[in-house]
Design a protein that fits this description.
single chain; 110 residues; alpha+beta; Translation Initiation Factor IF3; four-stranded mixed sheet; 4 strands; RNA binding; Alba-like_dom_sf; RNA-binding; DNA/RNA-binding protein Alba-like domain-containing protein
Length: 110
């Protein structure tokens, strides 16, 4: 997959940050891959689940890997990696526009 469709998820930010980024990529390209390593895996799953349950996306592929990486002392450590590929859901436009309009109605009047 093209790197422009890839979202690298960390455990330091809430999963909703990645939901917003993924929605924009889905709108632009029609598919997105969420990548997480180690502790970030839970954020990957939560973001993907939220996108699917709200109608933005449909699960295309769910992959898990074991990755060996050297730590600070150059000792190889095995870490788990998750890659979830989503494609634009059939109700994407409606969900996207409904969210956009609800956000606009919440803006305070100046």
């Amino acid at each position: 997959m093209d790197r422009k469709n890839e979202v690298r998820v960390s455990h330091g930010k809430p999963h909703t940050v990645y939901v917003g980024a993924s929605k924009e990529i889905l709108k632009e390209t029609g598919s997105v891959e969420l990548h997480g390593l180690g502790e970030a895996n839970s954020n990957v799953v939560r973001a993907a689940e939220m996108l699917c349950s709200l109608g933005y996306a449909v699960l295309d592929k769910f992959e898990t890997f074991s990755v060996s990486e050297p730590d600070r002392n150059q000792i190889l450590r095995v870490r788990n990696k998750v890659v979830i590929k989503l494609v634009r859901g059939p109700n994407f436009e409606k969900a996207y526009n409904d969210f956009k309009s609800s956000k606009e109605t919440k803006k305070p009047d100046s």
